[in-house]
Amino acid sequence: MNLEKNGICVTILGSGTCVPSLRRNPCSVLMExxxxxxxxxCGPGIMSRLLQADTSIFEISFIFFSHLHPxxxxxxxxFLFANKYADGSLRKYPLTLVxxxxxxxxxxxxxxxxxxxxxxxxxxxxxxxxxxxGPDVRKFDNFTVASAPTxxxxxxxxxxxxxxxxxxxxxxxDTDFSKNLISLAKDAELLICESAFPDELKVRxxxxxxxxxxxxxxxxxxxxVLTHFYPVCENADIEKQCRxxxxxxxxxxxxxxKIKI
Length: 261
Known about the structure:
The chain has seven helices and 14 strands. The strands form two sheets. It has a seven-stranded mixed beta sheet with strand order 6-5-4-3-2-1-14. By secondary structure, it is of the alpha/beta class. The mean pLDDT is 96. It has a single domain, classed as Metallo-beta-lactamase, Chain A. Strand 12, helix 7 and strand 13 form a beta-alpha-beta unit. It starts with 7 loop residues before the first strand and ends with a strand.
């Protein structure tokens, strides 16, 4: 595929949850920027959705994990195993896995289970564990990533990707209302924010449309995309609920939706 060298192109790989759905894969996002492909979360079905987005697994240079629940990390072992196809010769550059506190231990335990079947050739796999006790900023060749802890799991973090021209996209991961997310998303061009349940069915550790809208308004984002919809959202007016607190540009995520920044 032709990789984005200017700006950021976002593809929603999954707009759903752990609940099986033909319409919505578990929550995941592809971002193309600076000639690189970045994936956020790696739950079941991610490799098939990448093919539908005209992207090979061998073209992915980074996978960022918001947290380690199975619907966000469950296809990692299969992803790594698939990268060994043809003796690993199809991967031409390294794959970097990024996560919050405990991610290195998580990967080590996967290796205890699968052994060499998920080990890539030396130099082709890097592990980066971010400090989720507070904000963390890392500079890579073609983009900068900032992260901040969110209100879900101990290891949960949100990400902000900023390209060479200064455009930014924020991916919330799973979270309840979070002041850290508001700070991280301040003035970003795009916020991709979970909105797991309708307002009337609020669940601890997750946002609703009006709460996601409040975060977007306080952060003054350019555009809001709501995602991570449980099946109960299909029968609710998610847009109307979000409009209680947010009046800016709004999209409700669908799998394979594309957004150019």
